[in-house]
UniProtKB/TrEMBL annotation:
Keyword entries, A-Z: Signal
InterPro entries in the cross-refs: DUF4232, TAT_signal
DUF4232 domain: residues covered: 47-178
Organism annotation: Streptomyces polychromogenes
Signal peptide: 1-34
Pfam family, one: DUF4232
Entry superkingdom: Bacteria
Protein name: DUF4232 domain-containing protein
Protein backbone atom coordinates (compact mmCIF):
# COMPACT_ATOMS: atom_id res chain seq x y z
CA UNK A 1 0.00 0.00 0.00
CA UNK A 2 2.82 2.27 0.74
CA UNK A 3 4.01 1.85 -2.81
CA UNK A 4 0.63 2.80 -4.29
CA UNK A 5 0.40 5.83 -1.94
CA UNK A 6 3.74 7.06 -3.29
CA UNK A 7 2.49 6.68 -6.85
CA UNK A 8 -0.71 8.54 -5.96
CA UNK A 9 1.26 11.38 -4.37
CA UNK A 10 3.55 11.60 -7.41
CA UNK A 11 0.53 11.62 -9.71
CA UNK A 12 -1.12 14.36 -7.64
CA UNK A 13 2.08 16.39 -7.63
CA UNK A 14 2.42 16.01 -11.40
CA UNK A 15 -1.22 17.05 -11.86
CA UNK A 16 -0.70 20.09 -9.62
CA UNK A 17 2.43 21.15 -11.54
CA UNK A 18 0.64 20.63 -14.88
CA UNK A 19 -2.38 22.64 -13.67
CA UNK A 20 -0.09 25.45 -12.49
CA UNK A 21 1.71 25.50 -15.86
CA UNK A 22 -1.61 25.56 -17.69
CA UNK A 23 -2.84 28.45 -15.55
CA UNK A 24 0.32 30.43 -16.27
CA UNK A 25 -0.02 29.85 -20.01
CA UNK A 26 -3.73 30.62 -20.01
CA UNK A 27 -4.94 27.08 -20.63
CA UNK A 28 -7.41 25.88 -18.03
CA UNK A 29 -7.90 22.20 -17.25
CA UNK A 30 -10.79 20.74 -19.25
CA UNK A 31 -10.53 23.31 -22.08
CA UNK A 32 -9.21 22.69 -25.55
CA UNK A 33 -5.91 24.29 -26.38
CA UNK A 34 -6.35 26.98 -29.05
CA UNK A 35 -4.11 26.94 -32.09
CA UNK A 36 -1.26 29.32 -31.65
CA UNK A 37 -1.62 32.59 -33.46
CA UNK A 38 1.61 33.77 -34.95
CA UNK A 39 1.78 37.38 -35.95
CA UNK A 40 3.01 37.60 -39.50
CA UNK A 41 4.22 40.83 -40.94
CA UNK A 42 2.45 42.28 -43.93
CA UNK A 43 4.50 41.76 -47.10
CA UNK A 44 5.90 44.91 -48.68
CA UNK A 45 3.73 46.55 -51.35
CA UNK A 46 4.46 46.43 -55.07
CA UNK A 47 7.08 48.95 -56.14
CA UNK A 48 5.30 51.97 -57.61
CA UNK A 49 6.65 53.41 -60.86
CA UNK A 50 7.95 56.44 -58.95
CA UNK A 51 10.17 54.17 -56.80
CA UNK A 52 12.01 52.70 -59.77
CA UNK A 53 14.87 54.01 -61.87
CA UNK A 54 15.21 51.92 -65.04
CA UNK A 55 18.25 51.50 -67.27
CA UNK A 56 19.18 49.06 -70.03
CA UNK A 57 22.20 47.87 -71.98
CA UNK A 58 23.06 45.22 -74.55
CA UNK A 59 23.54 41.80 -72.97
CA UNK A 60 27.03 40.32 -73.04
CA UNK A 61 25.57 36.99 -74.17
CA UNK A 62 23.35 37.58 -77.17
CA UNK A 63 22.54 35.77 -80.40
CA UNK A 64 25.10 35.88 -83.20
CA UNK A 65 24.49 38.64 -85.77
CA UNK A 66 24.03 42.38 -85.80
CA UNK A 67 21.57 44.51 -83.91
CA UNK A 68 20.66 44.35 -80.25
CA UNK A 69 19.78 40.67 -80.00
CA UNK A 70 19.45 40.75 -76.22
CA UNK A 71 19.31 43.41 -73.56
CA UNK A 72 19.44 43.56 -69.77
CA UNK A 73 16.93 45.88 -68.09
CA UNK A 74 17.77 46.98 -64.54
CA UNK A 75 15.21 48.24 -62.01
CA UNK A 76 16.72 50.17 -59.06
CA UNK A 77 14.58 50.98 -56.01
CA UNK A 78 15.31 54.68 -55.47
CA UNK A 79 12.71 55.05 -52.70
CA UNK A 80 13.31 54.80 -48.97
CA UNK A 81 10.99 51.78 -48.62
CA UNK A 82 11.31 48.10 -49.40
CA UNK A 83 8.91 46.96 -52.11
CA UNK A 84 8.31 43.96 -54.35
CA UNK A 85 8.40 43.21 -58.07
CA UNK A 86 6.95 40.16 -59.77
CA UNK A 87 6.24 38.78 -63.18
CA UNK A 88 7.24 39.29 -66.77
CA UNK A 89 7.66 42.62 -68.51
CA UNK A 90 5.52 44.07 -71.22
CA UNK A 91 7.54 45.58 -74.07
CA UNK A 92 6.35 48.34 -76.39
CA UNK A 93 8.36 50.06 -79.12
CA UNK A 94 8.26 53.75 -80.01
CA UNK A 95 5.01 54.66 -81.71
CA UNK A 96 3.09 52.39 -79.32
CA UNK A 97 4.01 49.13 -81.08
CA UNK A 98 3.53 46.28 -78.57
CA UNK A 99 5.81 43.27 -78.93
CA UNK A 100 4.56 39.75 -78.32
CA UNK A 101 6.34 38.63 -75.15
CA UNK A 102 7.18 34.94 -74.74
CA UNK A 103 7.95 34.29 -71.05
CA UNK A 104 10.79 31.99 -70.09
CA UNK A 105 11.57 30.73 -66.57
CA UNK A 106 9.40 30.79 -63.46
CA UNK A 107 8.20 34.06 -61.95
CA UNK A 108 8.59 34.66 -58.22
CA UNK A 109 8.07 37.67 -55.99
CA UNK A 110 11.29 39.66 -55.65
CA UNK A 111 11.84 41.88 -52.62
CA UNK A 112 13.84 45.01 -53.45
CA UNK A 113 15.26 47.03 -50.56
CA UNK A 114 16.11 50.72 -50.95
CA UNK A 115 18.93 51.06 -53.53
CA UNK A 116 18.47 47.35 -54.33
CA UNK A 117 18.30 46.11 -57.92
CA UNK A 118 16.36 43.58 -59.95
CA UNK A 119 16.69 42.61 -63.61
CA UNK A 120 15.00 41.10 -66.64
CA UNK A 121 16.65 39.91 -69.84
CA UNK A 122 14.98 40.50 -73.18
CA UNK A 123 16.02 38.49 -76.24
CA UNK A 124 14.75 39.65 -79.63
CA UNK A 125 14.37 37.95 -83.00
CA UNK A 126 17.72 39.05 -84.40
CA UNK A 127 18.16 41.53 -87.25
CA UNK A 128 20.57 39.99 -89.79
CA UNK A 129 23.05 41.48 -92.25
CA UNK A 130 24.77 44.84 -92.47
CA UNK A 131 23.46 48.37 -92.81
CA UNK A 132 19.67 48.34 -92.88
CA UNK A 133 19.63 44.62 -92.12
CA UNK A 134 16.88 42.16 -92.84
CA UNK A 135 14.65 39.67 -91.07
CA UNK A 136 14.89 35.97 -91.89
CA UNK A 137 11.06 35.96 -91.95
CA UNK A 138 11.06 38.54 -94.76
CA UNK A 139 9.44 41.19 -92.58
CA UNK A 140 10.96 44.65 -92.23
CA UNK A 141 13.25 45.10 -89.20
CA UNK A 142 12.25 47.64 -86.55
CA UNK A 143 14.59 49.88 -84.56
CA UNK A 144 13.64 52.23 -81.73
CA UNK A 145 15.63 54.76 -79.72
CA UNK A 146 13.53 53.82 -76.66
CA UNK A 147 11.21 51.05 -75.50
CA UNK A 148 8.52 51.15 -72.85
CA UNK A 149 9.09 48.35 -70.35
CA UNK A 150 6.31 47.58 -67.90
CA UNK A 151 6.06 45.32 -64.87
CA UNK A 152 2.79 44.18 -63.27
CA UNK A 153 1.64 46.64 -60.56
CA UNK A 154 4.84 48.68 -61.01
CA UNK A 155 4.09 50.91 -63.96
CA UNK A 156 5.69 51.45 -67.35
CA UNK A 157 9.09 52.98 -67.95
CA UNK A 158 10.48 54.49 -71.13
CA UNK A 159 14.12 53.52 -71.45
CA UNK A 160 16.91 53.87 -74.02
CA UNK A 161 19.78 51.45 -74.35
CA UNK A 162 23.01 52.89 -72.96
CA UNK A 163 24.89 51.42 -75.92
CA UNK A 164 22.71 51.52 -79.02
CA UNK A 165 19.17 51.25 -80.32
CA UNK A 166 16.58 48.55 -79.71
CA UNK A 167 16.42 46.49 -82.95
CA UNK A 168 14.38 43.40 -83.67
CA UNK A 169 12.38 41.40 -86.20
CA UNK A 170 8.80 40.14 -86.16
CA UNK A 171 7.61 42.16 -83.11
CA UNK A 172 8.59 39.31 -80.79
CA UNK A 173 10.69 39.16 -77.64
CA UNK A 174 11.51 36.44 -75.12
CA UNK A 175 11.61 37.72 -71.54
CA UNK A 176 12.84 36.34 -68.25
CA UNK A 177 10.82 37.15 -65.13
CA UNK A 178 12.09 39.89 -62.85
CA UNK A 179 14.90 38.49 -60.68
CA UNK A 180 17.62 39.50 -58.24
CA UNK A 181 20.08 37.45 -60.29
CA UNK A 182 21.80 39.75 -62.77
CA UNK A 183 21.76 38.21 -66.26
CA UNK A 184 24.69 38.61 -68.62
Amino acid sequence: MRHSNGIRRAALATTAVTAAAMAVTGILPGTAMAASTTTTSTPPPACPASALQVSAWQAAHRPVGTGTGAAVVQFTNVSQKTCVLKGYPTVTGAGNTPLKVTPTGKAATVTVRPQGKAWVKLTFVQVQGEGDGYCVSGKTPAAYPTMVIGLPHSGKHQVALKDGWWAHCDNKVTATPVSTVKPS
